Amino acid sequence: MNLTTSLGTSLGTSLGTSLGKLRDKVLNKPYSAMLIFSDINISYLSTFTGHAATLLLTSKGNYLLTDYRYFEQAKVEASDFKVICRDRANQSLASLIEDLLFQDDCQSLSFESDHISVMQWQEIHQQVNQLTKLSQISPLSGAVEELRFIKSSSEIAFMQQAAKIADTALATMLNSVKVGVTERELAIELDHQMALLGSEQVSFATILLFGERSALPHGVPGDRQLKFGDLILIDFGAVVNGYRSDMTRTFVFGQASAEQKHVYQLVQSAQQAAIDEVVSGVLGSHLYQQSANILLNSEYKEYVGEGLGHGVGLVLHEQPFIGPDCHIAIEKGCVITIEPGIYIPGWGGVRIEDDVVLTDDGLKILTKSPRGLIEL
């Protein structure tokens, strides 16, 4: 093999590390191997933040396969891995994987079937069958995602920092709210403020909508101009070290109408009812039901959003997806959003969303912007 390598410091098999836990779970037999294709999962396991990489874990070693564009970066960031720089002109990824499986005498292989195309996998599968002694090749789904479900204290700290950036940026952006400003202009200003405060990127495309357009749960900011009496729905987040925040606030520009106040109060009560029930071991379906007991028994039941929230971390939407059929238990370290909403076509929508996490000291709400109705 014509390989350039950087030796990692260890196999990372100690209990308590994500890599070690994955090895203990999947590579629990001699001569076994696993392929990781997801950029997010690669970053989670190796701390490598680049792209164009594949992880190969075998009973004998951890390998990060990349090319000249990311080789030096990977050597610095992925200390638990042998970093291999593939000569793209002379060696395919499939043939490199084949060589390593043969070198480590691998007999079984699991692969992330959710994160590779059929065409790519067919090429790898055909190649490894030519030289290796694999007796079993099997797809594996969700193994790394399951580890990501519970966040460490450092991961939670990154998310708390991202939430703080979002809180501060929102407070600053609200100074730009005025008659005639467009949704797009305010969204750009909010994104700009988050960048100035240190956000690596936006957590997702910012949702910022006025008036009747606030009834679009995931609407795109446009040229709609702000008028007195409009609802303003803002859903956005910041990113720190790859970890995301996610918050929604709804305001009224000017004096709120009686109906706006009523709808807002319903949503706020529904959110608080769910937050009050977040304890270790509670099922997501139970949290959903606490919110639904209020919203689905109101005169606006036909306009209630279907879900209550979701996990958040390295990606915006992670397990658990909190709804009536969510039988996943919330545990300490699981960061979730709680975001009930009412969306009335032609009138507008109200959503209130916060990031919450269970800690040793109880429930912590990471997003701190005021949750009461504010008239701007």
Description:
The chain has helices spanning about 20-25, 40-45, 70-75, 95-105, 120-130, 145-150, 155-175, 185-195, 260-275, 285-295; strands spanning about 5, 30-35, 55-60, 60-65, 80-85, 110, 135-140, 205-210, 230-235, 240, 245, 245-250, 310, 320, 335-340, 340-345, 350, 355-360, 360-365. Mean pLDDT is about 95; it is low at about 1-15. Strand 13 and strand 14 (about 320) form a beta hairpin. It is α+β, with helices and mostly antiparallel strands and about 375 residues long. The longest helix has 21 residues, at about 155-175. The strands form six sheets. The protein has a seven-stranded mixed beta sheet, sandwiched between helices. A three-stranded antiparallel beta sheet has the order 8-9-12, with helices on one face. The chain is elongated and about 75 Å long. The protein has two domains: about 5-145, 3-Layer(aba) Sandwich (Creatine Amidinohydrolase, Chain A, domain 1); about 150-365, Alpha-Beta Complex (Creatine Amidinohydrolase). About 30% of the residues lie in helices and about 20% in strands. The protein has ten helices and 19 strands.
